[in-house]
Design goal:
binds calcium ion, elongated, about 20% strand, 11 strands, alpha/beta
Length: about 230
């Protein structure tokens, strides 16, 4: 886990960095808000700990500008006691959580753990088979064996979701057509074929060993070798 820490008080920054490193996080530290924003926009971090009062740009500005630029890295904002407006502003600006100074190290670590979880697809939301994991909400397909992922279109995702939900079961084109398009006619069967071929390409792209087998005249099923 790689964290970005933006904090201008040297002693605070050093103490936080040390604490996080002891917990196994890889930490980069910046003292100015503008430098922190540049680092954040590089997209290489799993989470950000962002002080509000900073030289260059305030933490609230850093959060707001990064969100405007499409950066979705989870942000934990640090505010001084009584800076209630900053908390509200920070959350409005796109921070995910805040912590009021002074805080216990334990508290910070708990928040950071929660923050990093937020950035990852939640395991319970995934449908898995063999080396495949589908996050239907994020329209993303992962291969746990290769570490590769790929974005799916809405329909590709629904096709795969249906196959994964009924794995090891033969699904007819009719079943897929009704489930995904809501109709059962020849035109929809052609779409099923087209989308099955799209999904196969995505499976190949991520390097998965799971295959969609066509069973002549009967339909499709997922197959993979058991480990
Ligand atoms: Ca500060």
């Amino acid at each position: 886990m790689k964290l970005l820490l933006v904090e201008d008080e040297p002693r605070m920054a050093e103490a936080l960095r040390e604490l996080l490193r002891q917990e196994g996080y890889d930490v980069d530290c910046f003292f100015r808000g503008d430098d922190g924003l540049d680092a954040l926009c590089s997209g290489q971090y799993d989470g950000v700990i962002l002080d509000v009062m900073l030289p260059g740009l305030s933490g609230v500005e850093v959060a707001a500008r990064s969100r405007q630029r499409g950066v979705r890295t989870p942000i934990l904002m640090l505010t001084a006691k009584g800076e209630l407006d900053d908390k509200v502003l920070g959350l409005d600006a796109g921070a995910d959580d805040y912590l009021t100074k002074p805080f216990q190290p334990r508290e910070l670590l708990a928040r950071v753990r929660a923050l990093c979880r937020r950035g990852k697809p939640v395991v319970e939301d995934r449908l898995c088979a063999g080396d495949l994991a589908l996050d239907a909400r994020a329209l993303t397909l992962y291969c746990t064996a290769t570490g590769q992922s790929v974005h799916l279109s809405e329909k590709e995702c629904r096709v795969l979701e249906y196959l994964l939900s009924n794995r090891k079961q033969l699904l007819s084109k009719e079943q897929l057509a009704v489930k995904i398009w809501g109709y059962d006619n020849d035109a929809e069967y052609n779409k099923v074929e087209v989308y099955i071929s799209f999904v196969r390409k995505k499976l190949a792209f991520v390097g998965s060993r799971v295959e969609i087998k066509a069973v002549r005249g009967a339909g499709y099923e997922l197959r993979w070798e058991c480990e």
